[in-house]
Design a protein that fits this description.
- By secondary structure, this protein is α/β, with parallel strands linked by helices.
- The chain folds into three domains: 2-209, no CATH class; 245-540, Alkaline Phosphatase, subunit A, CATH 3.40.720.10; 556-616, Arylsulfatase, C-terminal domain.
- It has 19 helices and 18 strands.
- Helix 1 (2-35) packs antiparallel against helix 2 (44-68) and helix 1 packs parallel to helix 3 (73-104).
Length: 616
C-alpha cells in the first residue's frame, strides 16, 4: 500500500513537472507571438492543441517502450533523453521563429532554416560575429542536455504508468495517444482547415499556407475569376520590338542612399557614368507597395497591389514567354525555399539562385557573377528576359573588402531583433551601421557594372532595355531603428527606378512625379510594343502623366500617396484601431505632423476607403 502511494506521488510530481515545462514554454512563446509580434489571438488554441497532441504522441511511445524494456539500466538514460530532448527542440524552434519574425516578418520555413544551418559559418562571418561563437554555443547546449540526462535518469513518469496499467490498458492508452498525434499531424499538414499563423504548420508546411510573408494571400473569388478571364482572352501582339530585357533588383535597395539620387556619398559612380553613354531615365520618386521582399517582387512582375493580387496572377514572365521570350533568372539569395517564391516566376530556360551552388555563401552576389560567366553567347534567335537579384544591400548579404569602403562598419543584423526593428546600442554603432549599408550600395553598383559588361561581351545588350530597381527600402536609424518590414516609413517604401536603353533610343518618358513598383512591368511591355493584360493595375511610364493614387500596405497598415499642387501627400490607416495619419511626404518625410484632423470628415472617409481597398 505504501509502495503504491509512493509511486502515485512520484508519478504526480514528475507529470506535473513535465506539464509545467511544456506549458511554460508554449505560454511564454504565445505571449510574445501575440502580444509583441501581433499574431492573431485565435492562434492560441490551435497551437496549444498541436503541442498537446505532439506531447501525447511522445507519451504513447514512451509507455510502449517502458513495456518493452522494463527496468533496463541502459534504457533509463534513453528515457531521460526522450523526456528532455523534445522540449529543448521546441524551445529551439521557438527561438528560430522569433528570429524569423524579427528579421523578415514571418515564421521561417524548415527548408529555409536548413539552408542557413548548412552555411552557418558563412552566416556567422557575414554578421561579423567571432568564428568560435557557433561551436561554443553548440557545445554548451549539448553539454547541458548530456549533464541533465546523466544526473537525472529517473524522470519519466511513464515508467510508473507502464507498471500500473494492465497490458491491454497500456496498449489502449498508448494507441490512443499516438493516434491523436497522428490525426492532428495530418490535419496540420494540410493547412486548409487550420489557423494560417500556427507556427509549427507555417514552418513545416508553408507551401500549403495562405500567407504571403506577413500578408494574407487569399484572393477574392471575383479577382480570381477576372484573372482567369483575362488569361483566357489575352491576345499576343504580332509585331513588337524583339529586344532583350535586363531587370536588376537590389534587395533592400534604398533610393536616397544612391549617389544617382543625390546622396552625399559616391555610392553609385558606375551607374552615374553609364548615364553619359546610354539614354537613361531616372524616375524621381518610386514607391514600393510594401516593406518586404515577396510582395515587392510580385508587384514588380504582376503589376498588382496587395489588395488586388489574385491567387495566380499573370506575370511579366508569362506574357513575355507567350511572345517567344526565353526567361533566364540569376538570383542571389534563397528563392527556392522562400515561401514559394521560385514558383511565382514560372518556367524558365535557366534558373539559378544561391542554393544552386556550394562554392560560396547563399547570399554572396559573386555567385551570381559566376553564373553570368557561364551563360552562352546570345544567339539572336529569341529575345530574352534576364532577371537578376542582388543581395549586396541586404543585411544578410556578403560584403567584400574594398579599398574605398566606408569605415568603420558594423552589420546591424547582428543586433537583437525587435518588433519595430533593430535598435543600435549607441550612436557610434548607428554610424557604423550606415557605413555598412553604404558599402553594400557601393558593392551593388560595382557588381551591376561588371555584370552588364559581361552581358555586353556576350551580345545580350546590343539592343536591350535595362532596368535597375529595388524590392523595398531600408530603415537606417531615422526613427531610431534599422531594418524593414516593420513600418510604412518613407525609408522602407522609397526605391530607385532607373531605365536605360542600350543599343537603341526612343522618345522621352513622361514627367511622372510619382511612380509605383506596379508600373515596372507595363513600362517594359510599352517599350517593346506589347499590350499588357487587362487586369494589370500599373501604368506605362512612357505615357502622359495624370493624377493618381499610389497604394501601399504593410502588416496592419494600408495607405496611399497622391500628388498635391506642390507636395506629395501620404495617407495611411491602421486597421485595428482605425487611426489615420496624413503627412506632407516632401517636407515632412518622417511624418511628424499629422494633418488628418484637418481633413473634412467626408474626405477623410473617402481616403480611408481608398487606402484599405488599395486599388483605383
Amino acid at each position: 500500500m505504501r509502495s503504491q502511494l509512493a509511486d502515485s506521488r512520484r508519478l504526480a510530481r514528475r507529470l506535473t513537472l513535465e506539464l509545467a515545462c511544456w506549458g511554460s514554454l508554449t505560454g511564454a512563446f504565445l505571449f510574445i507571438y501575440v502580444g509583441t509580434y501581433g499574431a492573431d489571438a485565435g492562434v492560441v488554441l490551435p497551437h496549444a492543441t498541436v503541442i498537446l497532441a505532439f506531447w501525447s504522441g511522445l507519451v504513447g511511445i514512451r509507455l510502449m517502450l517502458w513495456r518493452l524494456f522494463p527496468a533496463r539500466e541502459a534504457f533509463l538514460r534513453a528515457s531521460a533523453l526522450l523526456v528532455l530532448t523534445p522540449p529543448v527542440a521546441l524551445a529551439a524552434w521557438y527561438m528560430v521563429t522569433l528570429v524569423g519574425l524579427s528579421s523578415w516578418g514571418r515564421v521561417p520555413t524548415w527548408s529555409l532554416v536548413w539552408t542557413y544551418a548548412k552555411q552557418s559559418p558563412h552566416l556567422i562571418a557575414t554578421l561579423g560575429l567571432p568564428g568560435w561563437w557557433l561551436p561554443l554555443a553548440a557545445a554548451g547546449l549539448t553539454t547541458f542536455v548530456a549533464v541533465i540526462v546523466w544526473k537525472a535518469p529517473r524522470v519519466d513518469w511513464c515508467e510508473i504508468g507502464a507498471r500500473r496499467l494492465s497490458p491491454s490498458g497500456l496498449s489502449t492508452v498508448a494507441s490512443c495517444c499516438v493516434a491523436l498525434a497522428f490525426t492532428q499531424g495530418m490535419r496540420l499538414s494540410s493547412m486548409t482547415d487550420f489557423h494560417h499563423e500556427e507556427p509549427i504548420g507555417a514552418g513545416f508546411f508553408a507551401a500549403r499556407s495562405a500567407e504571403m510573408q506577413t500578408h494574407a494571400a487569399t484572393a477574392s473569388p471575383a479577382l480570381d475569376a477576372a484573372e482567369r478571364h483575362a488569361r483566357a482572352h489575352y491576345a499576343t501582339t504580332t509585331t513588337f520590338a524583339h529586344r532583350n530585357v535586363v531587370l536588376i533588383i537590389g534587395d533592400a535597395l534604398r533610393a536616397s542612399h544612391m549617389g544617382l539620387y543625390g546622396y552625399h556619398r559616391q555610392t553609385t559612380p558606375d551607374l552615374e557614368a553609364s548615364t553619359h553613354h546610354h539614354q537613361t531615365w531616372i524616375a524621381p520618386t518610386t514607391k514600393a507597395i510594401c516593406a518586404e521582399s515577396l510582395c515587392g517582387l510580385l508587384a514588380l512582375s504582376s503589376s498588382r497591389t496587395l489588395q488586388s493580387m489574385p491567387t495566380s496572377p499573370i506575370t511579366l514572365h508569362e506574357v513575355l514567354r507567350l511572345h517567344g521570350y526565353r526567361i533566364r533568372l540569376a538570383l542571389g539569395g534563397d528563392h527556392t525555399h522562400f515561401y514559394g517564391l521560385r514558383d511565382s516566376y514560372g518556367p524558365a530556360e535557366s534558373y539559378f539562385d544561391g542554393t544552386e551552388q556550394s562554392a560560396r555563401y547563399v547570399n554572396d552576389d559573386l555567385a551570381v557573377l559566376d553564373h553570368i560567366d557561364t551563360l552562352p553567347d546570345y544567339d539572336g534567335r529569341h529575345p530574352e528576359l534576364l532577371q537578376l537579384h542582388l543581395m549586396s544591400t541586404h543585411g544578410l548579404g556578403t560584403k567584400h573588402d574594398a579599398p574605398d569602403a566606408f569605415a568603420p562598419s558594423t552589420n546591424y543584423y547582428r543586433w537583437p531583433g525587435r518588433p519595430g526593428g533593430r535598435v543600435p546600442p549607441s550612436a557610434e554603432d548607428a554610424e557604423r551601421a550606415v557605413n555598412h549599408y553604404d558599402n553594400g550600395v557601393r558593392q551593388f553598383d560595382r557588381l551591376v557594372s561588371t555584370i552588364l559588361k559581361a552581358l555586353e561581351a556576350k551580345g545580350y545588350l546590343q539592343n536591350a532595355l535595362v532596368l535597375v530597381t529595388g524590392d523595398h527600402g531600408e530603415m537606417l536609424g531615422e526613427t531610431g531603428v534599422f531594418g524593414h518590414q516593420h513600418s510604412v516609413d518613407e525609408a522602407v517604401l522609397t526605391v530607385p527606378l532607373v531605365v536605360q536603353r542600350r543599343g537603341y533610343s526612343g522618345s522621352d518618358f513622361g514627367a511622372w512625379p510619382l511612380a509605383s513598383q506596379i508600373d515596372v512591368a507595363p513600362t517594359i511591355l510599352a517599350e517593346l510594343g506589347i499590350a499588357p493584360p487587362s487586369t494589370w493595375r500599373g501604368v506605362a511610364l512612357q505615357s502622359t502623366p495624370f493624377p493618381r493614387f499610389v497604394y501601399f500596405r504593410q502588416g496592419s497598415y494600408s495607405g496611399a500617396y497622391f500628388q498635391g499642387r506642390d507636395a506629395l501627400f501620404k495617407y495611411w490607416t491602421e486597421h485595428a484601431s482605425a487611426a489615420s495619419h496624413l503627412s506632407d511626404a516632401t517636407r515632412d518625410p518622417l511624418g511628424q505632423q499629422n494633418l488628418a484632423p484637418l481633413l473634412r470628415p467626408g474626405l477623410a472617409g473617402q481616403l480611408m476607403l481608398k487606402a484599405m481597398a488599395g486599388a483605383p
